[in-house]
Amino acid sequence: MSALAQARPRTTFRIHPRPRPTELGLLAIVAVAMVVGAAGLGATQRYRAAIEAGSPPTALDFSPPDARALLLYLLGLLVVHALFVLAGRRTDQVLLPAIGMLGGIGLLLMQRLPQDTVVQSFGSLQLGLGQLQLGWLLVALGVITVLALAVRSDAWLRTYKYTWAAAGILLLLLTFVFGSDVNGARLSLSIGPISGQPSELLKVILVVFLAGYLSENRALLADESTRIGPVRLPPLPYLAPMVAMLAIALGIVVVQRDLGAALLFYTAFLALLYVATGRPSYVIGGVALFIAGSYVLYHLFGHVQIRVDNWLDPWRDPQGAGFQTIQALYAFARGGILGVGLGAGLPTIGGRPPVPAIHTDYPLAALGEELGLIGLLAVLGLYLVVVSRGLRIAASAHDDFRSLLAAGLALVIGIQAFIIAAGNLKLIPLTGITLPLISYGGSSLLANAVVIGLLIALSDRGIEPPPPPRPPRAIRRFRLRRGPAT
Questions:
Q1: Residue 455 carries which DSSP code?
Q2: Staple 407 to which of 291, 293, 381, 394, CB 3.0 to 4.6 Å?
Q3: Mean pLDDT in runs of 10 for the chain (486 residues)?
């Protein structure tokens, strides 16, 4: 062994736990809110069941409808927090409680709905809607933990951005060819026993590619222009990716009949383009192109006409295409300002909820009826918290790629929540995307878990420098006797 190797200090891996008081305090608030909500839901469900049976109860039973599920979910959040403490990394302390509250609201909503809405069998074991949602939430928490603790470098995202883009296009083509239709839209892809919506994962791949591409060409896109008369366009060599994005978005509308994914991808692209360049002209031009393309598609394809016509006048076919939209509007009206209470919404019609897709496309309608306008604003406020924390992470990033990646990941959550909320409220045509972290669906929960995990990893501020060593006691006494230095 050489003298240099002998002199080199031996490094050992040590765990330096770091308390996260802000995160722990916010998680305590989440736990209290979950317990109170579950208690109210259990009491309401038992009271209504007793009334329907003709034997009104003399006292309310406030035990949760599924105490084990509640305990497992809260325990999962606590385990994630404990692992973050043990890892000792200086990461964001607000994201986990925010998504914990959103996931908890989704869990209570799925427990409130009829459990036979979705049933899956695993051998002799049958799981209902609430149990399946709990399972996916726990898996999502595991994904968040692994990404937040394991991702130390973004090189595997930055270097292989074109590979990720090719994988996304291949995933889209596979869905085009082998996907199955869900409510008239080709959304789901099955590989053996596993089934999911690739568009959920595709949004993450899209953000990674755009962050890499825009970070490399940011200066040219921000400063250079090609003039065509009075119109200023980006440099012509860099128009190809923008035109490709428009083609992909409109192609999704045509082939998959998925208006939600098309709107999400294109809006996220325009938002990141504006963040990268700061030029509103690009966004205005992109919106104009999308409107023109949508106008052409409306006159060429019947399924686009149905969606738009149903948005403009759902009462034209109240028992058919407009049924869910009308029932959702009635649910918001019944909820009013304060809501009717968790579990006290409109009884089922013929054994089913009045809004058939309430667990996927219309969760805000159920929350608006039972929690009211105030509860609905609180839910939307949680999404604003996630977006604001993501933008803070982007603002403090060390380079353009990390900044654009964090901004894109945060914005894709906010844009998706806005699109589904606007569709539920009849502000835009209804789209077939889910409400992040609340709607039922494994692919949606896992894709959003990847987003949150990457955001927490990107928020890492590195190892905290140790405090300066204190001088020996004799030197401190000497300084005190001499007084402050002049």
A1: H
A2: 394
A3: 46 69 95 93 83 73 84 96 91 95 94 83 81 94 94 83 80 74 64 70 87 82 66 66 67 69 85 86 82 83 81 85 86 90 75 78 90 93 96 90 93 93 88 87 90 94 62 60 56
3-state secondary structure of 323: helix
Contact between residue 282 and residue 239 where contact means Cβ atoms under 8 Å apart: no
Burial code (b: 16+ CB inside 10 Å, e: under 16) for 371-383 equals bbeebbeebeebb
Which residues, in sequence order, are CB contacts of 249 under 8 Å at separation 6+? 262, 263, 265, 266, 269, 290
Judge contact between 407 and 390, C-beta under 8 A.
Answer: yes
How many Å is the Cα radius of gyration of the chain? Answer: 26
Q: Is the pTM for the entire model greater than 0.85?
A: yes
Cβ atoms of 188 and 209 within 8 Å: the answer is no
- Which residue from 221, 224, 422 is spatially nearest to 311, judged by alpha carbons? 422
